[in-house]
Structure formats: C-alpha cells, structure tokens
Amino acid sequence: MPSGPAAFLALFFFRAFLTWCDVRSRLEQGVMGGQVSSVDGVHVVVVGGGFGGIAAAQQLKSRGLDFTLIDMRDAFHHNVAALRASVQPGAAVYTCFAQRTFIPYKETFGERFVQGQVQRIDTDRQTVVLEGGREIQYSHLILCTGTDGAFPGKFNTVASYQTAVQVYEDFVKQVQAANSVLVVGGGSTGVEMAAEIKTEYPNKKVVLIHSQIGLANPELLPSVRQQAKEVLLEKGVELLLVSLCLCGRVGVTELLCVSGQKVSNLSELQLNVTQKNQEVTTERGDTLSTDLIICCTGLKVNSAAYTPAASGRATESRVPLTGCLADDGALKVNDHLQVEGFSNIFAVGDCANVSEPKMAYHAGLHAVVAVSNIANSLSGKELTSYHTGNVTMLLAMGHDDGVGQFNGLKLPRCLVALGKSRGLLLWKSWREMEQKQP
Ligand SMILES: Cc1cc2nc3c(=O)[nH]c(=O)nc-3n(C[C@H](O)[C@H](O)[C@H](O)COP(=O)(O)OP(=O)(O)OC[C@H]3O[C@@H](n4cnc5c(N)ncnc54)[C@H](O)[C@@H]3O)c2cc1C
Asked: Out of the domains of life, which is the source (predicted)?
C-alpha cells in the first residue's frame, strides 16, 4: 500500500477523477442547467432523504425552486459506512465513528425539512398525507423512498439520530464479545461485512455463508468478484459457498447439481446478539456453531406510501400509484424518470424500477435528471433521458483494502482502498449536506 505523499497524491487524483467523471456524466446527459428562479405555484415535494433525496433537494435549492424534503427520520444515514460503524469502537481514530454516519437534516434544509412518515399520496388532490393526517401539497413530486434491509447495513427504526448512533455503538460491543461470527449472505453487503470484521478483529473466526454462485453483485466483472473472494481468503474469512456435487448418472454421463449453502433455521436464530455457541444448520445438512449471526440479505423497496395494504386503505383505486408498481414494489418509470402515467411525479434511487444495480451513486445521477426535467418542463424545454452507464462499483474490504471497477474497468486494489475503503466517502455526504464532519 502506498503511504505518505504517494498516498495523498493518489487519493487526490482519484477524487479529482471521480469528480470529473461525475461532472462529465451530467454534461453528457445535458443537464447542467442554469438557475430557474422560483416559479409561482411550483412546490416540489421530495419524499425520502436518502442519497437520492438529499441530492434532489440540493439540486432544487441550487436552482431556486421551492421544495419540501420529507423523511421519517431526523438525519440522513450514510449507510455506505454503516458496516464500519458496526465494528469500529468509539475510542479508535475519532470519538465515535457511527456519529459520522448520521447527518441531521434541519441544519442543512431548515424549515424546508419536515420529519414525518408519508402514508399516502393523493394524486387527484396533489397532496402527500403524513402519519397523523398532515397534508402537504405538491406541484411536482420526487419519490425517493429507497429500500430497507437488515441491520446493520440499514437502520430501519424511526428513532432520533442520537439513538441510532447508540444502537451502532451497542452493536460494536456485541461484535467485540463474540469469538466467532457468521455472516449470512455473500452479496456486496455480506462481503464487505465479513471483511470489516476480520480487518478490525483478525483473531475472530469469521464465516461467510452464501447460497449463490459467485460472491458480491452479479453485475460486477467476474474478475472483480473473484478478487473479492481472494481478499476474503487472504484476510482469513472462511467461506461456505455453493458447490457442485454428483447427483446422478445416466450411462457414463455424470449429473452434477449445484448444492447451495443456505442457513435453514435462520428464523429460529437470534440475530445481532452475541450468544455463545448458537447452532446453525444449512440446507445441505451441515451444522456449525457460532456466537454472533449477522444477516446481510433481503433488501426490500420502501413502497408503504404507495401500496394499498401498507397504507391501510383496502381499495386499490384510492392508492393511485398501485398500478405503477413492478413486482418488487419499485415504481415503473420512463426514460425521463417520470412514474408511468404521471408527468409531474418522478422516482429516484432504489425505489425506481431502473435496470441497474441499486446504488447511492445511481440515486444521485437520477436526482439530477429528475430535477432537470422539472426545470425543463417549466421552461418548455425538451426532457432529459437517463441512461445507465457501464457499472462503477467499489467494495471496501476493510479500511485497508478494496476491489472494484470504474466504468466497466477493473481497478487496482490500492486505488479502491484509497478512494473508498479508507474514508467510505463520508466526506462526500458531509459536503453535500454543507456541514462540517465531526
Ligand atoms: C451496507 C451497504 C453499503 C452500500 N455501499 C454502497 C456504495 O459503496 N456505493 C453505492 O453507490 N451504493 C452503496 N449501497 C447502496 C446504497 O446505500 C443505496 O443504493 C442508496 O441508499 C439508495 O438511496 P435512496 O435515496 O434511493 O434510498 P435510501 O438511502 O434507502 O433512503 C430512503 C429514505 O427514504 C425514507 N423513507 C422511506 N419511506 C418513507 C416514507 N414513507 N415517508 C418518509 N420517509 C421515507 C427513509 O427514511 C430513508 O431515509 C450500499 C448499501 C448498503 C446496504
């Protein structure tokens, strides 16, 4: 690993490169529009203050468009760093790592931020209805409700950010108390989780179990996925992966079948709490004993605000966005990111049914397109289209290593470590929120 001035220079150029590419991709999409001064009757409501929501709100702010940002929590969660916050104790490096992963909305958006859970969207009356009955009218709506998933990758509870920080600090103690940890699910989150634990606590036994062929996101280059596996093995993570086994024979031809490694008694196990020697069984019949089980599977689109069952209204006709939902609850959008059938409603980020990996990076790009299209529609200009580019994805393998690809090209591990793994891009979110990182 380069260190000292070499590391600084490499990091500087990598950041400059990322910034340049970001600006370039916006230019290519023709969306570096100028300021639109506040327009009478225009009020944009942004639902969800994740990566997509804060990017949309900042775009609206810089264009001088009137807006309200709504989130059920009081702080933005930079969940890209949530796994580090689960293993790094407070006394290390900074006073508390978890604290750096939550950024309060009020400081950035003031009265333009409203805390509340959106329960219903009334497209006829152009209002969003919050829990408790408060209604907020919109001329344009940007839905950025994202996804929820298992803790610690996601923090799903509605709680103050001080409580959220405490939850992560308490979880660090659970990890510290365990001699062995089982990480369930070898997608990108599981891979990063296993690497974080083994990097911070090299003496703990860490096992990663995965039911699919190949680790990490399937959209990554096979060589990057292979490299992720190699880094885990180098760090000493034990892998329980899919294997091929003989399941029959026709004449001289052997029939091979894929034998998955999946925990079969997950629902009976207590997750995220250290209990010595919990018995875990796999669908293949193996058993293993571990002190702590962390689940890294199952992201689910937050569609509660626009699905009838969750919004407590039995009839679909009263929930007009129901017809726009894909099977996984994501909102179907056209190339302009307008929700099918609505010219003034946009979906951005994980809740948009765009065929690409669900990533913060993409949520930010979507936000630029959605806000540009609101401005374009107001000034009578042609709408901008969103085009998925080649996959850019960086996996932090602990603070000292990383794998990934940029625009479809595999990156050297040291560059990913410097560009992402070391600081987990926290600086980017604090800069976007115009606040000083503690
Ligand atoms: C552990 C982990 C690491 C990751 N690392 C990376 C990475 O390195 N790079 C990358 O590009 N991507 C990464 N991702 C993916 C990235 O986190 C998501 O793609 C990103 O968060 C999507 O942003 P979003 O704005 O669409 O939604 P979210 O970030 O999920 O935010 C949605 C927001 O909406 C709010 N909300 C939901 N429903 C309502 C409602 N009804 N009323 C009010 N508010 C509501 C929620 O409170 C939340 O704040 C990672 C994901 C995980 C889990």
From this structure: Eukaryota
Q: Assess contact for 352 and 330: CB atoms under 8 A.
A: yes
Nearest residue (CA) to ligand 1, atom 6? 80
Q: Is the same domain home to 329 and 380?
A: yes
CA of 7 to the centre of ligand 1 (A): 30
Where is the domain boundary, 234, 262, 295? 295
pLDDT number for residue 264: 84
Dist. CA 6 → ligand 1 center (Å): 34
Task: Identify the residue whose C-alpha is closest to ligand 1 atom 41.
Answer: 118
C-alpha–C-alpha distance, residues 69 and 211, integer Å: 39
Q: What's the pLDDT score for residue 210?
A: 93
Pocket-testing residue among 46, 59, 80, ligand 1, by greatest number of atoms within 8 A of Cβ: 80
Question: Looking at the domain assignment, is residue 169 inside a domain?
Answer: no
Ligand 1 pocket residue status of 57, Cβ below 6 Å:
no
Rounded Cα–Cα distance for residues 399 and 396 (Å): 7
The phi and psi torsions of 253 (rounded to 5 degrees) equal -85, 125
Nearest atom, ligand 1, residue 189 CA: 1
Residue 126: CA count within 13 A, CB half-sphere: 15
Question: Between these two residues, 305 and 204, which has the higher pLDDT value?
Answer: 204
Query: What's the 113 CA to ligand 1 centre distance in angstroms?
Result: 18
**pTM score:** 0.89
Instruction: State the CATH number of the domain containing residue 205.
Output: 3.50.50.60
Within-domain flag for 173? no
Residues 307 and 279 in one domain: no
End residue of a domain, out of 268, 295, 322 = 295
* Ligand 1 atom showing the smallest separation from residue 352 Cα: 26
Question: Is the domain of 10 the same as that of 150?
Answer: yes
Is the minimum distance from the CB of 194 to ligand 1 under 6 angstroms?
Answer: no
HEC string for 229-270 = HHHHHHHCCEEECCEEEEEEEECCEEEEEEECCCECCHHHCC
13 and 148 in one domain?
yes
Per the domain annotation, does 165 fall within a domain?
Answer: no
Same structural domain, 20 and 148: yes
End-to-end CA distance of the chain: 27
Reported as a single tens digit per residue, the pLDDT across 12-35 is: 455 555 554 454 444 444 444 455
Domain span including residue 309: 4-160+299-432
